[in-house]
Sequence to fold (114 residues):
Amino acid sequence: MTVPRPGRPVRGSGTGRPLMAALDLFGRRWNLRIVWELRHGPVGFRALQQRCDNMSSSVLRQRLTELLDAHLVEQRPDAAYALTELGHGAHRALRPLVKWSDGWASVMDAGGQV
Fold:
């Protein structure tokens, strides 16, 4: 499977619009979770695997390869993985969704009444 890139057709869209490419990339299982888990700084492979509920090592390698190719993650000389500036931007973009999801959880906990 190829890494989604702006300007190229992606799953669900032949336009290659940047938003559609981003949705394709982040819609792949574990990619958002990996970005989220790297938000506080570099992490080694095994520690990242543990933070991601012990996902299989082959899936983690595949997802890290996608995020490396998308320039959201870098591998440091000490072999730890870290967010790039682009990756930090993705994390910053997720923060409003975190706030929204907390409000959603509160509504659902209250019996779904808005």
